[in-house]
Amino acid sequence: MRRKTRQIHVGDVPIGGDAPIAVQSMCTTYTRDVESTVAQILRLEEVGCELVRVAVPEMEDALVLGEIKKRIHIPLIADIHYNHQLALEAIRQGVDCVRINPGNLIHGRKALEEIVKACKERGIAMRIGVNSGSLDALDKQAQMQRIQIRRRSDGVVERSDPAEERRREREQLAERMVNKALEYISWCEELDFHEIKVSLKSSAPLTAIEAYRRFSQRSDYPLHLGITEAGTLVPGAVKSAVGLGILLAEGIGDTIRVSLSAEPEQEIPVAYEILRSLELRNRGVTFVSCPSCGRVEIDVIEVANEVERRLAKVQTPIHVAVMGCVVNGPGEARDADVGLAGGRGKGVIFRKGQVVRTVPEEEFLDAVLKEVASLLPEHEAR
Ligand code: SF4
User: Fold this and answer.
1) Which residues bind [4Fe-4S] cluster (predicted)?
2) What is the pLDDT of residue 297?
């Protein structure tokens, strides 16, 4: 069961309540380089990004946000640290949301209050982002003190269980993150501002999971899920799938970002794959392909990768299977909207459970793509 959160809007995208879990990403370009930033956002839109965030480290970056916004089609979120004047300018430029970590605003609560007032005037949302990185050092210090105190009072050096210590440290850190987020929310609520979503990110999935779980027991503001600094494509995708997947399976999370040290366009398919796996979104291709083995009779890895690449921009929900031999091939291919079951240099093409024809290996790709195209609306079939 999805946890019931209050609904807010970022531009025209609803977040929380019964809205679909929204997929977002962040540009890697220098925001002031308008051409590159717009080009990257348009590429993100093509693969299904629904909200995009850009970094605003300097006033030069803030001042081009209006121009960027005019040329894109999805809500624009300004990512601000330290200097609240950047947030105020971003809001003047017409962004749809600002992402703030109130803990690192130089002028603290007073600065947050100015941002809140500006958000209220323009009717836009704010993400309160609490990151474990900024609280981590303090917790480590507290833990060291705890260990030392125990040694003094016992009179002997007692070795604690490292796993137990890590768990305790994690819980403490998560609790501090949640308390900080709730404190910042209360500052906003005192100004009667409620268009808030919250993120509680950590590069350690277990810490993030703990923090999001705790927060969701104490508040109904919508949650932006992310495992921050998750790493390069493979480790980052796996960490995100584990961290986000566990929370989403528990009904927690209203919008997600998969953070990868890779082109941001690569984050989007990973996000949708996580959501499709949990049957939370069904956009695009649900892809089944066998890993191949000693029984394989076609080059299943090459065909599967090429089919996946060629269908990366499809938005219509469609189920495609590419299977290597007769053992599991016909069953999976028959269950798909379009399936290929390989065998001895040729393959059987299925469409909606029916055999359409048998084709030689060199025609696999064209045959699968042709059948998929016949099931897509015209604008996607081209
Ligand atoms: Fe191996 Fe055939 Fe199964 Fe593919 S479908 S993994 S080739 S047995």
Assistant:
1) 290, 293, 325, 332
2) 82
